[in-house]
Amino acid sequence: MANFMLLRGLVRDFGYWLQGPKDDAKGRKARIEHYQKKLQDEGTIDALEEQDVQDLFVDLWALGSLRTRKAKEAFVSENILKTNGGANGVKKWLKDMVQRGEKGLTEQDFDELLKGIKGVGPAILSELLCLRFPDRYWIWNRVTEGASEELGKIGAWQSQPVEGTPGQRYFAWKQLQDEICKALKETWQQLPDRIREVLKELHYFAADSFCNWLVHERKIWRIAPGEGGEWWEECKKNGCIMIGWDMAAKQAKDFRNLRSKEELKKLFQQAYGRKKGMGGWSQVWVFVHEVQPGDIIVAKSGRSEILGIGIVTSDCIPPGHSDHPLGDKHEHQHARKVDWRVTESIEVSLNLGRQTIARENRWDDIVKAYQKRGINVYERLWSDQQPRIDVHEHLREDQQLPNGVPSLVRYFEAKGFQFDEKQVVAFYAALKTKGFVI
């Protein structure tokens, strides 16, 4: 079963990633249109040339473990085409797959399709079905299983092992896919029109995109907001994280214009020579080109203090840009917008290293450290994603909220009351409607 609140929060962070430079939704739409055209009906399948049939399999992500296109072509030729009577034999199977899919696939159909062709496993079959019928069938592969494990760690999904035939195991994944699609629909209104409209067409293929983001694309970064955390209060107040290297930034003006590591390294050599800061080019490259919207940021100070945790919500913003969260206050700092969701600082026994930017490799330990302080990092990151309520307008002048609590849920928790979100929402709605309800 899903903890829909946590799942919805994760999906909203996935939405930040979709608005970044990856443009995953557009690429997936093109894939669906291509496969639907090729596998539209018996007539279009009969018209496929042998190369077309080979390409249908070669272009599947299920063959991603084969690194080169040449290796994929060899695999399809030897293990699918040759062993199944050539292109005509495979086309017969493809027509059977489409016919069963249109009628309404069953567990038995899935098993019989696998038995009816050699060299094709559940990952290939399910991807073909999803590409042809994205509103009816979903993808089941290692990414699906990996996403389920990640969601289980967070507490957003608890799956039970399923025994049985491949068909039975395939249909056991439907509930998770449906929950992801439901969460996507809940958050569509927050996305730009161009992305929202594409996601509606992708359906289960959009759920697979979320799974892929969760397993492969989403990263956790450890970043120091200035030496000794000197910029932390500004970053926290203005919802951002920023980096320095002023001498290089002054020369470059916009690090994004340097499209290769060699260009950036050369700039740093010119700016610093052998002085302190020359080696920072690699960390700047990470901040500008590798950190992505939807990633997790762990802000740190020194080697043993965690300042806060947040979610990246923008691309890299150069100095002087109209959208810079600090305006012209820091004329040489590049920044990214961050939604800081944990703002309590803690001392940890971990060695956080000296680097300004690094991949976070002790995430589980950080989560446990906060847990000892009574702070559930996962709930802070993803459960409080509803439109935020300004609690201050409902308090007396002498009342203060602890540490900028963002919602009534957090406020009640701070006062020692335990109400779930539904109760708080019902109370707030009643209060706004008729104040005498108390």
List the helices and strands and how they pair.
Blueprint: H1 4-18, H2 24-38, H3 42-46, H4 50-58, H5 69-81, H6 86-103, H7 107-115, H8 122-132, H9 142-154, H10 166-172, H11 174-187, H12 193-202, H13 204-217, E1 220-223, H14 232-238, E2 240-243, H15 246-252, H16 261-272, H17 281-290, E3 296-301, E4 305-312, E5 334-342, E6 346-347, E7 357-359, H18 363-372, H19 377-382, H20 408-414, H21 421-433
What is the gist of this entry?
Mean pLDDT is 87; it is low at 385-407. Helix 4 (50-58) crosses helix 5 (69-81), helix 7 crosses helix 10 (166-172) and helix 9 packs across helix 13. The chain has 438 residues and is of the alpha+beta class.
Describe the structure.
The structure is a single chain. Residues 385-407 have low confidence and may be disordered. 37% of the residues are buried. The two termini are 35 Å apart. Helix 2 (24-38) packs parallel to helix 12, helix 7 packs across helix 10 (166-172) and helix 9 (142-154) crosses helix 13 (204-217). This protein has 438 residues and is of the alpha+beta class. Helix content is 51%, strand content 8%. Strands 1, 2, 3, 4, 5, 6 and 7 form a 7-stranded mixed beta sheet that branches. The chain contains 21 helices and 7 strands. The protein has helices at residues 4-18, 24-38, 42-46, 50-58, 69-81, 86-103, 107-115, 122-132, 142-154, 166-172, 174-187, 193-202, 204-217, 232-238, 246-252, 261-272, 281-290, 363-372, 377-382, 408-414, 421-433, and strands spanning 220-223, 240-243, 296-301, 305-312, 334-342, 346-347, 357-359.
